[in-house]
């Protein structure tokens, strides 16, 4: 399936609760717990280890999109 950049941006902004252009671990946990289900700290660390390619502790939009597209 092909999803537009607009689609991925919309999803990103739903997780980026404070709308600062970055997803931190607390935002990710809050979103997951509310909409998907309880996620462990260990699983959050795994996601961030894979997604946070510049290792700054947050996931920016391009990192998010690459993760979602399995790039």
UniProtKB/TrEMBL annotation:
<keyword id="KW-0106">Calcium</keyword>
<dbReference type="GO" id="GO:0005509">
    <property type="term" value="F:calcium ion binding"/>
</dbReference>
<protein>
    <recommendedName>
        <fullName>EF-hand domain-containing protein</fullName>
    </recommendedName>
</protein>
<dbReference type="InterPro" id="IPR018247">
    <property type="entry name" value="EF_Hand_1_Ca_BS"/>
</dbReference>
<feature type="domain" description="EF-hand">
    <location>
        <begin position="39"/>
        <end position="71"/>
    </location>
</feature>
<dbReference type="InterPro" id="IPR011992">
    <property type="entry name" value="EF-hand-dom_pair"/>
</dbReference>
<dbReference type="Pfam" id="PF13499">
    <property type="entry name" value="EF-hand_7"/>
</dbReference>
<dbReference type="InterPro" id="IPR002048">
    <property type="entry name" value="EF_hand_dom"/>
</dbReference>
<feature type="domain" description="EF-hand">
    <location>
        <begin position="3"/>
        <end position="38"/>
    </location>
</feature>
